Structures are given as structure tokens and as C-alpha cells.
Amino acid sequence: MEAKPASLLQGKVSELPDAIFGWAMRLCGLAVVSLLALIVWELVVRSQLSWHAFGWKFFVQSDWNPVEEQFGALPFIYGTLVSSLLSLVIAVPLAVGVAVFITEMCPAGLRGILSFTTELLAAIPSVIYGLWAIFVLVPLLRAYVQPFLATTLGWTGLFTGPPYGIGMLAAGVILAIMIIPIISSITREVLTVVPQHQREAVLALGATRWEMIRVGVLRNARAGIVGGVILGLGRALGETMAVTMVIGNRPEIAKSLFAPGYTMASVLANEFSEASGDTYLSALVEIGLALFLVTIVVNAMARLMVWSVTRGQPARNIA
Q: What is the pTM of this model?
């Protein structure tokens, strides 16, 4: 019997680690996809009882009475949308302004410090934000901000009622603080991939610095900026602890931003452990399924819009 050449045996041995590594990476990818599929499956199965009992009316009814097993998710959807949109109104101008200053106007020595400080806000746990809001933000709103808004803008109907401090306005402000680092970092990324020659061309035409930023930079990065805003919206929609601590947790629909409210995430945090009946538990799971699907769609849209600007290009520093 002829012996196999030593080089052939060495080749097969050297291919074995590559094959093991390749299958291990495939298993890692499949594990992530399988985990996502299992989460969706569990939410769908656990919410079947509520779905069969209420159908689509579950999302348009306002009653939330666990004693009589009457459940409607409209107050929670309303609270989630209002608090998230309010946070965007507050956070977007500030976040975009910070990003423009860092990339276009900030001195080189201060750029790294300011970038680190802004991103550090994203590392603070949400419960710390909630504690800060209770001891600092809520008293400020109750003593100064809400009385001023009631006096100047009370005619709009958005700033009426007793100034308790806790309510929809407090939730929107704390959410705005929490999503500023996300919007700012995404905006900086898309601003830094705008070609430098576009800035130089606009300046060569006699434009001012502000006109250069507005026409040559922001206009070319607007799709990516919108993607960053949507990504921040996804974070705001799913935020739980900080919102739960300051929103008031009352399932009602009120026009005034001073009134307490409820969000889909906060009702899950507050009532899931207290759900005694099967229908009650199934209704909460259905709220979780709706929140999960909305968050997935919002994040997918944001990633797509950011990619449409960056096209996978690495961020570069603007001198």
C-alpha cells in the first residue's frame, strides 16, 4: 500500500482549523437570528388570548380595567408617541448644533474632549437619569418652567393645569437628554463623510461660513441626519425606567403636557409582575409585541437612511 504524500496530509490538517472557524462563525450568526425569531414567536404566542378577545379594537380602545378584564392600548400608544415626539422637538436642534460645532467650528484641541463628553451621556444608566429628573428636573419644571409656559402659552391648551412637575413634559425633557448623544454621534458621522472639496467649492464661490455649512454640508448630509433622528426616536420609543419615574403613570389621554400619562414601555415595567389573570397578562404581552415591531421598523429605516449617505465609508476627521 502506498503512503499518502506528507504535503497532502499537512494540507488537510491546515484546512481543519479554517473549517471549524467558518462553522463557528455561521453558528454565531444563526444564533442571533434564532434569538430574534424566538422572541417574536414567544410574543405572538403569548398575546393570542388578548388578540382573540379584542382584535384590532385593542389598539383604539381607551379602557384599561384589569378587574373587569377590559383592556385598550390607546392611552399607552398616545403617551409613547407624544413623549417621543416632544423629545425630538427638544433634542434635534441641540444635537445637530453640537455635531456641526464639533465637526466644522470647534478648535482641534477641544474637539476630542467635547466629543467624549457628549458620548458619555449615552453611557449613563437610565435609572440615574430618572433619579436626576426627580430631584433636579421636576422641581425646576414645577417652580419655574411650567408656570412660565402656562402664563405665556397657556392659550394653546398644551400648557394648562396644575404645575406638578411630573407629567408628559418631564418625560419628554428627560428623553431628549437621553437621545442627544445618539443623534449627535450619527450626525457627526455623516457630516465627516461629506467630501472636503464641496466645502472648498462653496467657499470659493464667495459664500460665508454659515452658507458653506448650510449648503455644502447639511444639505448633502440631510438623509443621514434624518436617519440619526429616527434612530434616536427608536431609543425614545423603548425607554422605560427614566420615563416611568417621571411621567406620572396614569392611563389617560390629555391635551395638556402638564398632565400625567403612560407609555407602552412603562406599563410593562409597572404592571407585568402584578398581572394575575391570563387575559391581563396576554394584553401586556400584546403591548410588548407592538412596541417590539415598531422599534424594529424604526431602527431599520434609520440604518437604511444613514447607509444611503455614508455608503459604508469610514468617518474621517475634518482639519
A: 0.83
